[in-house]
Design goal:
alpha+beta, Rossmann fold, eleven-stranded mixed beta sheet, 10 helices, 36% helix, elongated
């Protein structure tokens, strides 16, 4: 009897059925926290998940007994390409960005941060709506063109965490958020910001702007509709926006008043969180391997060569143990197969013996039936009862009790003289 598969196994086989190619190719991520507990790190993890929407596990549940191997084992099913781990220790908080399946791993120290709820509460005008999280954000990198392998690695890592944009086929209405990363050369820190993008038409008075955006105007102070339309008050976009933020739209947007080849202004509303990061370490593998860069520890070429030799020796020992384990596993499989064959032979032999006994019983039943037929035939032809020993087989009959000679042991009498 085979082992029955659970409903989770049956469900996993149907996960990738019917998915679009664009969704499969898009980078997906796991975001979770490890280390010491705390409310701030939990809230920060949830805020970072919101940044990575929609290609992230929004309701990912982590247990203490879960290891990195558990996430790596299921990463292929869900097309996971990156793992973001927030860790908290006694020295501070850190962020690890891991590229699956073989690395590299970037470790950042979090100097300070502000949660999304705190950032939004400080703004005078807030713009938080769920429609903005249905599409991936635009990544903007600033000042990452300096010297050093680590800067190129940081920029490529953050770019690969989000889907690429095809300028020829992109729909501008889907770009509603952006992630800005600014590198400070003096402090060697990275400012992480998250904004919502809003496009508003320019060159319109406040009254016309309300009509264009389908808002109901207040005409209580106007004698005529012309007074409302010709009011000299400048629009909010003309009063606050700079000319640098003015752009010419190449296509029509879904928002009202933004037509193709028209001038509009770009506004950014911060969504949070704010994070200040500093790159500490770059590892070649997945949370392991050769250290390619370290901010505080610098080793000489001799020390690097010694570390490589130790790592190579450790790798050889690991391979040797793996081969021994595979050999032992193979021997166990052979023993298991031999035991299985022996058990099958025993079962087969037992079946043959049972069949032989059944055959003998069947033959004896047939012989007794033939004897009964002979007795019945004799009665019909002769008209008398046959003798008892006429049709009985003499094989195996016991000797009568009267013919058995009983020997008695004689007692020897001793002469007393």
């Amino acid at each position: 009897m085979g082992h029955k598969k659970g409903r989770c196994v049956k469900r996993n086989k149907q996960i990738n059925v019917g998915e679009k190619e664009e969704l499969v190719r898009a980078p997906h991520s796991f975001v979770f926290h490890r280390g010491l507990p705390g409310d701030h790190i939990v809230e920060l993890t949830k805020d970072f998940r919101r940044v990575m929407e929609p290609f992230t596990a929004s309701s990912l549940k982590i247990r203490k007994k879960n290891t990195i191997k558990d996430f790596v084992s299921v990463a292929g099913i869900f097309h996971i390409s990156h793992i973001c781990i927030f860790t908290k220790t006694e020295l501070g908080m850190y962020l690890k960005l891991c590229r699956l399946p073989r690395g590299p791993t970037l470790t950042f120290k979090i100097h300070n941060f502000s949660l999304a709820r705190d950032v939004v509460s400080m703004l005078k005008k807030q713009m938080v709506y769920e429609e903005a999280y249905k599409n991936a954000p635009l990544v903007i990198l600033n000042n990452f063109s300096g010297e050093g392998m680590q800067l190129k690695l940081i920029s490529s890592t953050f770019q690969n965490m989000f889907p690429t944009i095809n300028l020829t086929t992109i729909n501008l209405s889907t770009i509603r958020r952006c992630v800005c990363l600014n590198y400070n050369t003096t402090s060697k820190t990275i400012d992480f910001r998250h904004y919502a993008i809003k496009i508003v038409p320019t060159g319109l008075s406040r009254g016309v702007k309300k009509l264009v955006q389908a808002k109901v105007p207040n005409l209580s102070k106007c004698e005529d509709i012309s007074d409302f339309l010709t009011k000299p008050t400048m629009s909010e976009s003309e009063a606050e926006d700079d000319e640098i933020s003015h752009v010419t739209l190449p296509q029509k947007l879904s928002s009202r008043g933004n037509h193709a080849n028209s001038t509009s202004a770009i506004r950014l509303y911060e969504l949070g969180p704010r994070i200040t990061l500093q790159l500490i370490k770059v590892e070649n593998g997945l949370l392991d391997g050769e250290i390619l860069f370290h901010e505080f520890i610098h080793k000489t070429e001799e020390e690097k060569l010694t570390i490589r030799k130790k790592r190579a020796k450790k790798q050889k020992l690991k391979e040797k143990r793996r081969k021994i384990q595979e050999e032992n596993k193979r021997k166990k499989e052979i023993q298991k197969q031999e035991h299985k064959e022996k058990s099958l032979k025993g079962i087969q032999k037992k079946r043959e013996n049972d069949m032989l006994l059944q055959k003998i019983a069947k033959e004896s039943a047939e012989e007794s039936k033939l004897e009964d037929d002979d007795v019945q035939y004799y009665r019909e032809e002769v008209g008398e009862e046959p003798d008892k020993d006429l049709f009985q087989t003499k094989i195996g009959t016991k000797r009568p009790q009267k013919h058995i000679i009983k020997y008695k042991s004689k007692k020897i009498k001793l002469d007393k003289s």
